[in-house]
Amino acid sequence: MTWLVTGGAGYIGAHVVRALAAAGIDPVVIDDLSSGHASFVPEGVPFVEGTILDQALVEDTLRTHGVEGVIHVAGFKYAGVSVQRPLHTYEQNVEGTRVVLAAMAAAGVTNIVFSSSAAVYGTPDVPLVTEDLPKRPASPYGESKLIGEWMLRDQGVATAGSSQPLRHTSLRYFNVVGSSDTSIYDSSPHNLFPLVFEALLAGNTPKIFGDDYDTPDGTNVRDYVHVGDIAAAHVVAAQRLAAGEQVEPAYNLGSQNGLSVREIMDAMARVTGIAFEPEISPRRPGDPDRIVATGELAARDLDWANRFSVDDMVRSGWEARRAAG
């Protein structure tokens, strides 16, 4: 059994590739290396360098490797930047997903796991996000992910009565952190963990944006989930699709409880051994007090669980970042 991982040279995609291989599934990677790293692709895994916007390339990859399904991770993932670059975001995430679906249809590939985002919910006014909550994305990035889910749904409906119906599910998650392999680290310039790591390595003081929120310690509470758990859920979703088993259209990969920014900072100091007191900066506009998702459906169907403590998450991410030099 062979599955294509789009964006398989990226931080999340590379973990998915390793999780597939560990489960006895042969991975194939396509990535344009705009944010990924060729070194993240394990030796022996077929790697096609190119863009998912090239339908001929995607279709050829599917046919050449006898691909049974696609785990679609590739995309422009920076919600804040998407506000300044909406057209680029839509090109990469909406048109890119359309092209992948078109290539799959042409090649007769009928299974897809879509790496979506909790950004489809926007800033919900409930403490615990469930899958049926209204979708009110607050950025072009969130909108592009929701449109991707719509495209999967519509293609599924359109092909339902055919000999090759599309089987699909979308996985939504918030902040992915840590590492399951010291050769893979989060190199995003926008995510909390790498921002703190880079500040500590440079001898600077990490910042907390606001400490007067309506939370136990005054700082934002968010979902932080380990990338190893995320990758494992993608693999189980792929296995269920391949086996013809029933799946939901979408799952939240949530922590159920969340962690505050202060708790993250305390763990950073504890694990790294670098004592610091975070600098308190003003709130950022639009930051809600708390956004945490339930993972009950995913626990039921995808063996989803949070298997790592906050110290585990920080330690694994820190070790991977230091190993990168």
Automatic annotation (TrEMBL):
The keyword NAD applies. It comes from the Bacteria. Its cofactor is NAD(+). It catalyses: UDP-alpha-D-glucose = UDP-alpha-D-galactose. InterPro entries: Epimerase_deHydtase, NAD(P)-bd_dom_sf, UDP_G4E. Residues 3-254 form the NAD-dependent epimerase/dehydratase domain. This is UDP-glucose 4-epimerase. Belongs to the NAD(P)-dependent epimerase/dehydratase family. GO terms for molecular function: UDP-glucose 4-epimerase activity. Its EC number is 5.1.3.2. Pathway: Carbohydrate metabolism; galactose metabolism. The gene is galE. Pfam families: Epimerase. Keywords: Carbohydrate metabolism, Isomerase, NAD.
